[in-house]
User: Fold Auxin efflux carrier from Apophysomyces ossiformis.
Amino acid sequence: MSEAGKILYWKPDDTRETVSARGFSYALFFGLFSNVLRWSYGYNVLQAQASDKERAAAENTMPYYGTTARSSDELSYDSDLERLADDDIRRMSAVTIAAVDHNIPKTPDHERTRLLSSSPPYSSTPTEIPSPPLSVREHIHQRLQKTARSIHGYMSPPLYAAIVALFVGLIPPLKEALYSKQSFFYPSFTKAVESCAKPAVPVILLCLGSQLSTITARHFPSRVVVTTIITRMFLIPLSFVPIVIWFAKYGSAWSAIASDPAFLVIMVVLGCTPTAINLIQITQVSGYCQEEMLELLFWSYGVICIPVCTLVIFVALAAVDRVV
Assistant:
């Protein structure tokens, strides 16, 4: 972008360094908020899809371990057994009252009197014991626990790390204690964290390259991957360029950033970028759509990214040169 010359200059005293700095700042903010959305909503969507898949697999395998269907003869045989058992119960629960007094007429030998149950009738509805009323403090504690559980359901370890980093950046004493070279924590803690973070991207790329061997037997991507690539890298830029041009013409009344050529070009370029590499980590955690994600990243970065992004950058520069 900094090589585009005066096309991207915003103010009379602009230089290529300031244009490049603004472009990197816009891309950095976009990447930050994208990661927050990706590791919160996207992470939970893939986790939910994985649980649904496991539940469906469990339901499909259940007939093999459960009982099979029963024939009508077996059902009729069981009903006959139940009927005979009921007759035996009635016969055992009846007594014959024989006459002892000669003044009382004898009852027939076949007469039987059913015993009356002395126990109270059984109620199938269980009696609920009312819980004692909660105090205000307990009610607030339960509400806070429920809110914390719902928030934790949308969180993930990278998102917790981003929130901690945000607090560190917003609290000057804490930032000074961690990033000042004269501080005790800078060489012992901060540099150790930085050393662990530097190989993160190379390790991700190394794992991605090693996993690509699983799709070498397939010469062409699947239909889902083709549809995703066409939508992500062709249809979205075609629909996003008119929106950016409209914002450049009429957005100056709401924000001065609408007249910044670097911002407009960055918005167009970010609209056609490939799928984020760290999505492969989310699919590895959940085990869902892992092969499709590998194919998508391979074809996006290895084949389509360079020609499409180059064409979109030239289109964005031409549009900004005519509009701004």
Notes: Strands lie at 94-95, 113-114. The CA atoms of residues 104 and 205 lie 104 Å apart. The chain has eleven helices and two strands. Residues 153-198 form one domain.
